[in-house]
Amino acid sequence: MNKTHLGHTARKRFGQNFLNDEHVIGEIVAAIAPKEGENLVEIGPGLGALTEPVCEEVSALTVVELDRDLAKRLRHHPFHANKLNVVEQDALTLDFEALLSSLPEPSVPLRVFGNLPYNISTPLMFHLFDFANCIADMHFMLQKEVVNRLAAGPGSKSYGRLSVMAQYYCQVMPVLEVPPHAFVPPPKVDSAIVRLIPHRTPPISVNSVNILERICAQAFNQRRKTIRNSLKDSVTEEEILSLGLDPTARAETLSLADFGQLANFVYNKEM
Description:
- The chain has helices at residues 22-32, 51-57, 68-75, 96-102, 121-129, 144-151, 161-169, 209-221, 227-230, 237-242, 256-270; strands at residues 4-5, 8-9, 18-19, 39-43, 61-64, 84-87, 110-115, 135-143, 170-178, 183-184, 191-198.
- By secondary structure, it is of the alpha/beta class.
- It has a seven-stranded mixed sheet, sandwiched between helices. A two-stranded antiparallel ribbon has the order 1-2.
- Mean pLDDT is 92; it is low at 1-15.
């Protein structure tokens, strides 16, 4: 398999797979529906498969690209260089609030999109959740399995820490599936596009998001264990019962509201 595409070799360490199916690209851009005057931010533009059609619709686009060669290529794009604000940085360490305040219209929330490298997709989403207050929506191409996890509800084997935290921060909407042959080189997995719309008001009230994350991590790190065992460092069996929850239940049967109840109890206990 020749992994060179338009003179650029896909780099394994950046998890690069370049989208090159025109029909799929058209469907993704239609799902994003970019409009003039929006603060659009693309993460990992790569060779511009989404960048170019988005630039056809608008006069300004910020792109975040870690690969130095690709960032340089975008700065010298033959048609769209004057529309692009190229941020050469790792999206995992980027302060998206500071990015927004540096743009000409800082009062307009960000619309973030991208074909995310699979090796950083989960940590990147957790990083973006920290900036949910300045983001209008996000559209990401992810491994289909990750999209299933984002959207899963209690009782599903895909349901886990990512499901709970994503649904605390955002409305999760799977948009379309993308086959491996839409990429060069083709990945070994199916992909899918997901739309994430940050809640203006969270669906549950929690005193500490950090404690919610901690309780989720403890519960799902040992998902075969009952919550009596997996959460024993935070709550006793009697305390679980006092909340109206079953101590012999497993993490994957608890709802977001149940996790919120546990997190608030632990918060009050520790304060």
